[in-house]
Structure formats: structure tokens, C-alpha cells
Design a protein that fits this description.
CATH superfamily: Aromatic amino acid hydroxylase
Shape: globular
Oligomer: single chain
CATH architecture: Orthogonal Bundle
Strand order of the largest sheet: 4-3-6-5
CATH topology: Phenylalanine Hydroxylase
Largest sheet: 4 strands, mixed
Length: about 300
């Protein structure tokens, strides 16, 4: 009696689980940052994780999310039972703001990431977390990127804010190119990346905004909107310090990623957020971000090189 040999590729059996996907490892080994979404590789377990994540967020989104996020969620027509196809997401999103989700194999160095935003492309992780760790993931996955970030990308005002982040990064790289001294140039870029990362963290990732009613707060940051526990905690918990957005404070405030955020900043509106990113660009050009306070986040060699190696 002969044994049967499965014709199903091992990568398909493994699925696209974060940190366990052979397809992603092969792409990284080949040096491919921008990839296609191999939708056929998602396993039944991957789709089940998406379904579980999506189902438990529904009531919390309705209660805590900014209304423009809810409008964007409805616009995208995400399937609550299956991992989304990026081509379907883009079909609904691109006509509204020009933004498109762009699949990547892993971490995108800082300048490349912000420059993608400038070109209305959002680097998107295609793997999904393991079902055993629904509540905490130290790196993005497709639920964070698509269910957390992308609904906001359907809003023109928010989309323009992301583009402005890209302009900020370009201004920093242009200024660095004009600095002759290598030590000063590295110090400038290190400080600016740190300032931009902090600004992005406390707005796009973990931002709060005033609601329609006096004293009401709503979440618009993707790190909050993709976290079942922290979405309620950020607004209801007396342990969280919530302060009006102050640019001087934000760019000098370190953060840590492995626990609920103890301090958050509140913007008045999306117009307010856009104006603050505009101020950030002005501060880059004026050299006002060249010496922000030390501390987290650490700046990697890849992030630093991504700014220093830009050619104009």
C-alpha cells in the first residue's frame, strides 16, 4: 500500500500567522519589502481570528470611536467573517481620498514609511496574530492596520493629515542634506525622527478627540481602535492622564509600547490635528526639533539611514 503525499504547499498549511508565516520569511530573505497579498495562503484559523477580533469590537466601536471612524468602517464594507482582500479595501477607499493599502513583508524604515503616506499609500501588514494572543501584539498585524487604521483613511481631512506627515519627513531629509558636518547631520535626523515618532504615536496611533457633547471624548487613534481592552480603558479609566494637545510637550514625551498608555493627548478636531502637523513641518524647517528630549523611542540604524540616504 503506497502512502499518500499531500500536494498542499507547506506555506498554505502554515497560513499567514504573524511570526510564523513562511511566505513572509521568504520575502524578507529575498529583500522584497513591497509584496502582493497571497490571499490563498490564509488558513481557516486565520479567518477565525479575524472573525473573533471583529465581532468583539463592534459594541466598543459604537460607544468609544470617533464618528468619522464609524463612517469609514461602513464605507469599507469589511467582511466580519474573513480577512479582507486589500484590493477590495482599495476599491472602496481610493475614490474617496486617493489612499491605497500597500502590502509589505515587515517593518518599513521611517523615511520610506512617511514617504508612502506622502504618496497616499499605506504600508499594510498582511499577517494576522495567533488566536492565543488576541489582546496583545508587539507589532502590527492586518487587524490593526485595516480595522484600526484604514477606516480613518476614507476621511479627506484625515488623509490630508497623513500626507502632511510625509511632507514633514521630506523637509527633514532636505534639511539634513544641507548640513555639511556628519555629526550634526546625524544628530539632527535622530532628533527629528524621535519627535515625529512621538507625534505620530500620540495622534495617529493613540489619539483622543473631543466629542460632540461637552466633556465627551472619542478615540481616533488606531492603537486604541484595534484594542478591545485599551479602547474602553483610554476613556473610562481614572488612571489615564488626558491633556489638551500641546506640540512642545508631545515631541518631548517618551512612550512605551508594552502596556496600556498612562498619558494621552486630546485634539479639538481634525482641523486642529492638521494644523498641528503643519506646525511640526515649520518646526523641522526652523530647526526647533533638533534637540528634543532623550528617551524612547530608540532610533534604529535602518530608520536613520532611510533619512540620510535620500537623494533630491
Amino acid at each position: 500500500m503506497t502512502s499518500q503525499i499531500s500536494t498542499v504547499p507547506s506555506a498554505a498549511l502554515a497560513g499567514l500567522t504573524t511570526t510564523q508565516a513562511p511566505f513572509i520569511e521568504a520575502a524578507k530573505a529575498a529583500g522584497r519589502l513591497y509584496i502582493d497579498q497571497p490571499y490563498e495562503l490564509y488558513s481557516a484559523a486565520n479567518h477565525q481570528v479575524w472573525e473573533r477580533l471583529y465581532a468583539r469590537m463592534g459594541d466598543r466601536w459604537q460607544h468609544y470611536a470617533n464618528h468619522r471612524f464609524l463612517e469609514g468602517l461602513a464605507t469599507l464594507h469589511l467582511d466580519p467573517h474573513k480577512v479582507p482582500r486589500l484590493e477590495d479595501v482599495n476599491r472602496f477607499m481610493a475614490p474617496l481620498t486617493g489612499f491605497r493599502a500597500k502590502a509589505v513583508s515587515g517593518y518599513v524604515p521611517a523615511y520610506k514609511f512617511f514617504d508612502c503616506l506622502r504618496q497616499r499609500e499605506f504600508p499594510t501588514t498582511i499577517t494576522i496574530r495567533d488566536g492565543a494572543v488576541l489582546d496583545y501584539l508587539p507589532e502590527p498585524d492586518i487587524f490593526h492596520d485595516i480595522a484600526g487604521h484604514v477606516p480613518m483613511h476614507t476621511d479627506p481631512a484625515f488623509a490630508d493629515t497623513l500626507v502632511a506627515f510625509g511632507e514633514c519627513a521630506r523637509a527633514a531629509a532636505e534639511r539634513a542634506a544641507d548640513i555639511a558636518d556628519d555629526h550634526r547631520r546625524v544628530a539632527h535626523v535622530t532628533s527629528v525622527i524621535k519627535a515625529m515618532a512621538r507625534f505620530f504615536w500620540f495622534t495617529i496611533e493613540f489619539g483622543l478627540m473631543k466629542g460632540a457633547k461637552p466633556g465627551e471624548l472619542k478615540a481616533y487613534g488606531s492603537g486604541l481602535l484595534s484594542s478591545y481592552g485599551e479602547l474602553a480603558h483610554c476613556i473610562d479609566s481614572p488612571e489615564v492622564q488626558r491633556f489638551p494637545f500641546q506640540l512642545e510637550w508631545v515631541v518631548n514625551q517618551y512612550f512605551e509600547i508594552d502596556h496600556y498608555q498612562p498619558l494621552l493627548f486630546v485634539v479639538d478636531s481634525f482641523d486642529h490635528l492638521f494644523s498641528e502637523v503643519g506646525r511640526l513641518v515649520e518646526w523641522v524647517k526652523a530647526g526647533k526639533l533638533d534637540n528634543v528630549s532623550p528617551g524612547e523611542p530608540a532610533i534604529s540604524e535602518a530608520d536613520l539611514a532611510s533619512f540620510l540616504q535620500v537623494s533630491f
